[in-house]
Fold:
Amino acid sequence: MDLVILSAKGIIILVLFVITLLIAAYSTWGERKAAAFLQDRLGPNRAGVWGLMQPLADAGKMFFKEDFIPAQASKWLFILGPCLAMLTALMSSAVIPFGDSIRFMWDKVSYEVPLQGTELNIGVLYIFGVVSLGVYGVMVGGWASNNKFSLLGAIRAASQNISYEIALGLSIIAILMMTGSLSLRSIVNEQASFFEWNVFTQPLGFIIFLTCAFAECNRTPFDLPECETELVGGYHTEYSSMKLGFYLFAEYINMFVSSAFISTLYFGGFHYPFMNEVGSALEKSMGAITGHNIATAIQFILFFGKIFFFIFFFMWVRWTVPRFRYDQLMNLGWKSLIPLSILNIVITGAGLLFNFKYASWLIAIVMIVLAITTTVKAPKREMLTQQS
Amino acid sequence: MTEFLNFFKTLTPTGYLFLVLTALTLFSAIGVVTARNPIYSVLALIATFFCLSGHYILLNAQFLAAVNIIVYAGAIMVLFLFTIMFLNLRREDEESKTNLTKMASVVVGGLLMVMLITIFRAKNAQVTTVSSNTSFNPNTGLVEHLGGLLYSDYILPFELVSVLFLVAMVGAVMLGKREAGDRHF
Structure:
């Protein structure tokens, strides 16, 4: 590997890392603003213009709090817990393709570096690996606290993550069957034309994946590991100072990364309609290097637009849908999502046999019709209250 | 001594990686056995699986590495940790350290050692001839190659193993199933 390419890669990785942290920090601000908007309040508006310095103020407060370790806690594991949560959250963005590539001249040699941490031919499996490790941070921290509530939160988190990982994996398999590759870049490139975005060919898989992403991030309506009404603070009851900050921060990084994955897998990644036309027009007018880089920058910005939409969607759902009960959560995961995703795989496979890409719509339409008929047939709420 | 140092000078970066990984693997594997607290033991086992995945990557078997992490470190060890957390084995459990168990473990360990030694002695002659630097195919461990092999040459064992897994799953469901009239928790 050339030293120039290596340093260019290093710079790209560093920039992506900083962007991840910045977005996670400002997601906390965005979350509070979104909550305030949905509840007809103002939200943070004291620190800086529109409260923009709020994340910095929060981090400063976190650092100056007393860093407390309970007497009966297992000290090293207590410290390891938040570190693991942060580590696994940061690892997963390495394989996301954020844009096409950057071209530059150095020493009269032209280079082309893809805008991606690393291009793995097992990108999807890498994500599964990291996602399945994500639960260790919560489990280790919850157990090490030596607190019944923390342990219960940790155990809830573990069983929830294991249950929803299966449906998550099965829903992606339908995409893998259509793409025929485990590399995220080829999955993105497969969705070059607008109507072949996987959200149009795999509507059911998208809904299953979205639901599982909520569960894997421990976001409402699936935030039972930190259910305040039952478990005080859940797995981080005993945590304070920046260790607590790491747990909360890891949640926002996970949210960013899963938004990026949803956009990559189902919404064409960095592709947008007429991308090739825009790219060739820019290259014609501004030269192969500058034009190509500007085209890549446009892709990058639009990709982040998609990511921001999904981050907002996460917040929107959080302040709209109430929390599930634990048995409802398990029933949804094991009795609805897993059978549905297996059915989706079968139907998609049958469709591919006859070169019909939109086979997944068959189940989606049947489900919509079923939902409508059951709601029409169901007895009205007013009648029920009158009878009782 | 100088020979020993020269050995390190001749190593490629991959060689250094291999040595470091091997040291880590052995260290964490010993940790699994020596840790007094079962939780530490499980965590050391997870670290061992990670090091093994590193070895797979060095051998260019990326698929095996990823699956090792997903299945062993990500699923099976989570369940192990889960169970041990419920048992709450914080204090030393003296019951599991009677003379009988000690003797049994010595016998089992000795047998394993004998088996490993015989395997290595028998294989030693073949290994040098079967895979040398020139005949080694770097694509062996890649997904495409593996998938092709599994669905062509090894289709029968592959399907049999999946039936076996199905049987195990049905058995587990049968054991865990609530009979009519059982108590609901």
Notes: The radius of gyration of chain B is 22 Å. The mean pLDDT of chain B is 81.
